[in-house]
Specification:
alpha/beta; Isopropylmalate Dehydrogenase; 2 domains; ten-stranded mixed sheet; two-stranded antiparallel sheet; globular; binds adenosine-5'-triphosphate
Length: 353
Amino acid sequence: MRLLVLPGDGIGPEITAATVTVLEAVSRRFELGLVLDHDVVGHASLKVHGATVRPELLDMARASDGVVLGPTATFDFKDEAKGEINPSMFFRKNLDLFANIRPSRTYPGLPTRFNPFDLVVVRENTEGFYADRNMAQGNGEILVTDDVSIALRRITRQCCARIARAGFELAARRGKHVTLVHKANVLKITDGMFLEECRKVAAEFPDVKVDDLIVDAMMAHAIRAPERFDVIVTTNMFGDILSDLTAEMSGSLGLGGSINAGTDHAMAQASHGSAPDIAGRDIANPFSLILSCALLLDWHGRRKGLPVFEAAANAIDTAVEQALATGEVTPDVGGKLGTRTTGEALAARLLAA
Ligand code: ATP
């Protein structure tokens, strides 16, 4: 399996280095033959290449079996004419990575204020309120006058149907329950279309229970009884917000793993951003990106019919669970280890198992 590794900004290089340590260990233990190609995006790329992401990276990503993308300083990148492109959007849009799969769960060794839960947010990734990807040309955010601005939210039947199918297929392998999250009481046409398409797909999965919640009510239900959810299917921005909440509820945003998957390509990417407030201090939790890579290995294994990759993904999940139970973790989840030593300890655990 060939992976393109792009460390990104802020805590990106630190958590990516720890992730590489773990990937090398899991490759050795399961004889996966992982080949890692290293390159740059974000500020490091802007400095050297004059752009935060280069077109040739797209060819490299297409030739790879997956991309590992560290968080990037999206907020800094404002002007595409100056090479300031959002690398995350660049890959999601150009590789058509329409499904952002974001699991969140509690861990036995890590107390939280919530009932134990295990859920997955399945977020549409290519349209919605995301102005940088919802237009064929131009941008979905418009400054009409200095005092008037407009943002367009695009919802299409095709994108709703394919994200719904990704969610129902996942639920069929898990708890057989899908919750559709929307705001169709106000966004009657767009979220009405989302619900309509999701329900058409639901009819193909008679064994999967389906219900729906308005997004504001969802926030209350997520806090009150997260254990009632299995797979949550929702549109782009609602999914982005909800999945940060559920990642933090699991103990830390630093546990938020995620994969961006399309039909032919996939990209591992932590749910959180570049966390500049803790960058360079060796305290960032690398589990978000490590768990994202476990999702990528699992995706590859299923797609290629190679169960050893699924076994490797399970081994990473188990090793993370054990590390959290024994406290071999970073301070955000109650440990005393640094980012680097957390990666090393996890790699040692994988090799010893
Ligand atoms: P960006 O502008 O790139 O989105 P941000 O700081 O606004 O960065 P996040 O990176 O999502 O947003 O982080 C929010 C907060 O969560 C950070 O201030 C940090 O304290 C915490 N955090 C995020 N990721 C981690 C991590 N991997 N380990 C520990 N804490 C984290």
